[in-house]
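One-letter codes give the sequence; each number marks local geometry. A record appears below:


***
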Amino acid sequence: MSDIALTSFQGQPALALRAPDGARATVLLHGAHLVSWVPAGGEEQLYLSPDAKFGMGTAVRGGVPVIFPQFNERGPLPRHGLVRSRSWAPVESVVRAGHAIGVLRFTDDMATRTHWPHGFEAELTVSLAGRNLDIELAITNTGDTTFDFTAALHTYFHCHDLLKLQVEGLQGCDYEDMPDGLQGQQWGDVLTFVGPIDRIYKMVRRTLTLREIGRRTQVATSGFDDVVVWNPGEAGAAALSDMPDADWQNMLCVEAATIVDPVRLAPGQDWAGMQSLTA
């Protein structure tokens, strides 16, 4: 690890990844949190709140938080799990075959075992070139007991006007509205937004497209069964101390996730899920 050059972002150590074609990304060691992705010749694709808090024990609002081993408050652990507010170790930062690649790793410790008595290793790999970005989360059971977990890559996309944004590719997918637990099915192929949304779309197998005037982003997943679509809406944003009230109009979370059917890992087994983005 000693030969990995770190940079600083908002006072936090980070990996600055840059591909030969100019595509670049920044990943904090704090939470292995991707906070910026600029495709080659493009603009920033991720939303990062200007009021985001940084530092030990905090959760950064925006970018791509890593959720493991519990999604949200769906279980007894701290909200969104144990790894998004802890420091990860940089393992690799290289350019290979035209791709900039960064790898970070987190291993269970006394603090995580206080909440969750299991041995595990989490590894996040970020690879980018051109207009493509792959984010892979890999989990290994390093302990001697079987465990179940849920996970997500809580991706905040930047948009110019949420009310003019649409998501395509969810037609026919069953979903759960998280605030009230009601079940539904996506009727039309175009999902638009007029206010808050908080849904788990189940067993999503198609590539999704986020589309607004002059801009299109494709989202594909593998290993993850579900997709979460979330925006706090006007009232929800006003209740968040780390996000400007009006910024609900400039972001949408479309998250690769495995929530409905938790993953079960026996000792020595591993699992991996990937979210692939094309701008």
